[in-house]
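Researcher: Re-running this chain for the archive, since the previous output was lost when a drive failed. Same request as before.
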Amino acid sequence: MLIRPFSLQDIPEVKKFTDQQIGEGYYSESELIDCQKKSTTAAGEITSFVLVDDNGHIQGLRLAYPPGNWAHGKGNKLRPDLWPFPIEKAGYFQSLFISEAARGSGYGPRLSQKSIDLFKKLGTLGIVTHCWKESPNNSSFRYLTNVGFKKVIEHPDYWKEIQYTCTRDGYPCRCTAIEMAKEL
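Model: Regenerated structure tokens:
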């Protein structure tokens, strides 16, 4: 498996992958193009990464946006007044998905670390994210806690306004987001 920057050429494969992993229509192709562009710094560095198998199929995705390239996550609830760093110095972890076949092999932390390394190089003071409270076995919260994120606040029905079919509860999604922050 290979970890490399998320490119515009990856969009069709990433769309198929995210439809399988999080739910049909969570990301449109045009939104994924926007995600890739938000991941690109003014100097052309890309802070989002894909995990690709030997057949060229996407097996993992870390969407991460550098400071100044994002306003909020998929939902619009955000509490920067509760963070230990200013929003203009904050990166954002949008999504991390790992295929069933690649889970448990350390690829999630490796994808995230690639983004963190670039964030540090850019002078980012911290990272914000919204984790999925209802993730299987609370894996989202456990993972983020293990890599140093701290809970800021919970947002019930965070993804309710997004028109997609949630893998947990269909449409509309009634899941809760836990806003978390990590100082760098």
